[in-house]
Design goal:
Helix content: 25-40%
Strand content: 25-35%
Number of domains: 1
Number of helices: 3
Largest sheet: 5 strands, antiparallel
CATH superfamily: Peptide deformylase
CATH class: Alpha Beta
Shape: globular
Order of helices and strands: HEEEEEEEHH
Number of strands: 7
CATH topology: Peptide Deformylase
Length: about 160
């Protein structure tokens, strides 16, 4: 499985609900966790691998590997934090993004069991970043328009040079 990169329309599509957590979904979750290890990422969402389903995985130090199927963010804190983000789908591009410092999320795991999780700090940030992917939103959408344009230009120059 390859990571879909900026410019592919799938990254802008809203992912569809998973109706049944079957073997195919379990294999997808395992593959996504392998991609994280291979590409040294902290999170990856279905659309980033060409799967337009509501699934993402995260692996943040201290929290282990987590699978989120059909997630819903139930609460976000009033407190926010600015932190530099990057994305496997936009390699080499980083920008400061303001996000809620803490969240409460509900989802199902790869075994079909529902769970609710409160997260803060880096884990909360990664979850929000991956959740955005399910909504067709990229981290660059949280950056002021002028800066976003420059970052996209930089990515396109770098990406074309690499091809």
């Amino acid at each position: 499985m390859q990571i879909i990169t900026l410019g592919d329309d799938i990254l802008r599509q809203k992912a569809k609900k998973i109706d049944k957590i079957d073997d195919e979904v379990k294999v997808t979750a395992r593959n996504m966790l392998e991609i994280l290890k291979r590409d040294k990422g902290v999170g990856v969402a279905g659309p980033q691998i060409g799967v337009t389903k509501r699934i993402f995985v995260v692996s943040v130090e201290g929290s282990g590997e987590l699978v989120f199927i059909n997630p819903s963010i139930l609460e976000t804190s009033m407190e926010t934090a600015k932190y530099e983000e990057g994305c496997l789908s936009i390699p080499g591009i980083y920008a400061n993004v303001v996000r809620a410092e803490a969240i409460k999320i509900q989802a199902w795991n790869e075994k079909g069991r529902p769970f609710t999780l409160r997260a803060d700090g880096l884990l909360a940030r990664v979850i929000q970043h991956e959740y955005d992917h399910l909504e067709g939103v990229l981290f660059l959408d949280h950056v002021p328009e002028k800066k976003r344009g420059k970052l996209i230009e930089k990515y396109e120059k770098t990406h074309k040079a690499a091809v």
